[in-house]
Structures are given as structure tokens and as C-alpha cells.
Amino acid sequence: MPAYAVGHKVPDSDSICSAIALSYLKTAIGEDVRPARLGELSPETLFILDKFGLEQPELKLTFADTAGIYILDHSDRIQGPDDIDDCTVLGIIDHHKLGDITTATPLEIWVRPVGCTNTIIKMMYDFHNVEIPKNIAGAMMCAILSDTVIFKSPTCTTADIKCVEALAEIAGIEDYKALGMEMFTVKSSVQGTPVRELVMRDFKDFNMNDNLVGIGQLEVIDLALFDDMKAELHADLQAVKAEGNRHTVMLLLTDIMQEGSELLVVSDDSSIVEQAYNTKLTDGKAWLPGVMSRKKQVVPPLQNTFA
């Protein structure tokens, strides 16, 4: 019976590429670990897998019948498998705040304040002295470029940059920044995409002092791409809030060239959001200069305000 490596619900490129990379590493050192996913893949992730000839991880929503799971790119129960309480958690590899997953037995934990889970997994490959296959190295590199917004995110560290450089050499990529821009161009293709798909493309729920808060993020190379759809996006946030019985739903429209985000908000109490970011909402919107990271610049101040 195999174990599985799995990222969070509504998986992004880091979740998917880390599942592939960790399962290969674990198998190389004698464990039967397979990659899995909790949802459908984004256009960016599909681009990465196609670029390096990698198969999509298995779509698997229950894990109680497995040898255990490695939790990747999160440690909040609400973001993981629905049956996590019936699973053996073998390990957590993550770069976010420490969440509320608890275990009955000892586990392996690699948690580092870096820009991407794949940066940590590169450290694990080095620790175990396992050679990274060329295609997996390329996918890991792209995941780091995605999560660090090609090193523009405040979450980016020297470790992330060094790992990208090393992975690019393994993968045979001469101009990794050009590939990163190509990747973000794919990510910016929003025209013609259903609004609900955009809202949920990179969406995470958080428990903030017993209030359910959903935060989505769309990163593009030009915020003008949303000019004709902001009203529809805002209306769908209302629907997502009602359907999930959430206190607050927010969507970050992040412009990677201007290095800031427009925040769309629907909330039972908008003053909490205004206080968290020291801003004033106008028609449920506000521009947050310099804000590019959900985990470092958006979640912590909001969580503190709710507390």
C-alpha cells in the first residue's frame, strides 16, 4: 500500500510540482510514495507539466486507505484532504505559517521561511544526496519562479535564488527569467475564462478566530486585463461568500510589473479589512502598493485584526 504526497485544495504550481518532486525523492530512498492532487490544475501548472513532459498527479480526495500522506505547501487542516483526521500524516513540508494539523505519532517536518516549498525539497534532495532528474528540476525551478514572482515577492530569499540557479543548470535552461515571463504570460490569459474559474483559480480558506475567510489571488503582467470584468468578479465574490457561509471573501488582483495589488472585498464587517491594511475601501476595492504576497502581507495582518 503506497503513501501519497499531496498539496492543498485548489492546487497551485508549487503544490503540484512539490508532490511530483517529493514522491520521486522518497521513492529513491526506499519509500513507496506517489504524487496526488486535490483539484484541477491551473493553466500555468499545465504549461509547466507540458514544458517538461510530466504527467498530472492522480486526482485523489480520500487518503484513509493509504499508508499515509506527506502534506505539502500548507499545514492548515481546512486546506488539506477532508479525511485528514483518518490519515497517518508522515510529514509536513511547507513555507507558510504553522497551522493546526496535529498528529498522534512523530512525523518528519521541514518548514522553512523561504519563498517556495520546492526550495525546501531541493534542500531535501541535497540532504539525501539524490540526483534530481532533468524534467523534475525544470518543474521545481518554475514553481519557485511562480511563487516568488520571478524574485519580486517579499517572500523571496537568497535560498530561493540559489535553488533556481542550480535547478536551471540541471534542467538545461539558460534564461530562466525569460521562461518565468512566458509562464506569467500564460497565467495572465484571463479573457474568455469563466469568472468563477478565475475567482477560484488560486483560492484558500482560512480559519481566523472562528471566522471563515476566503482569499484568492490572480497574478498578471497588466492589471488592465481586469478592467472589463471587475464588476463580475466582485459579484461572484458575493456568491462565493454566501455559498460557503464565509465571513469575508477577498480577491487580490496582483500586477507583477507595478508590484502591487488591487483588493476586491466582500465582508460582514469591512472595517476589519480596512484596519488590517490601513486603507479605505471604495466600492469594495482598494489599491495596496507593494503588496504581492498573500502569505506574508495579506494573511498575517488580517489574522491579527480578527484576533
- Terminus-to-terminus distance: 42 Å
The strands making up the biggest β-sheet line up spatially as: 3-2-1-4-5-6
CATH topology of the largest domain: inorganic pyrophosphatase (n-terminal core)
Q: Kindly state the mean pLDDT as a whole number? A: 96
Q: What is the name of the CATH class of the largest domain? A: Alpha Beta
The portion of residues forming beta strands comes to 15-25%
Helix/strand order:
EHEHEEEEHHHHHEEHEEHEH
* Sheet of most strands: 6 strands, parallel
What does the radius of gyration come to? 19 Å
> What is the helix fraction of residues, given as a range?
25-40%
Low-confidence stretches: none
Number of discrete domains: 2
Instruction: Specify the number of helices.
Output: 10
CATH superfamily of the largest domain: inorganic pyrophosphatase (n-terminal core)
Outline type? globular
Structural class label: alpha/beta
CATH architecture of the largest domain: Alpha-Beta Complex
Report on this model:
With 307 residues, the protein is α/β, with parallel strands linked by helices. It folds into 2 domains: 3-185, inorganic pyrophosphatase (n-terminal core); 195-306, Diaminopimelate Epimerase, Chain A, domain 1 (Roll). The protein is built from 10 helices and 11 strands. It has helices spanning 13-28, 43-51, 117-128, 134-147, 158-171, 176-187, 195-199, 230-243, 270-277, 294-306; strands at 3-6, 33-37, 58-59, 69-72, 89-94, 108-111, 203-208, 211-220, 248-255, 260-267, 285-289. The strands form 2 sheets. Strands 3-2-1-4-5-6 form a 6-stranded parallel sheet. Strand 9 and strand 10 (260-267) form a beta hairpin. The model has no long low-confidence stretch (mean pLDDT 96).
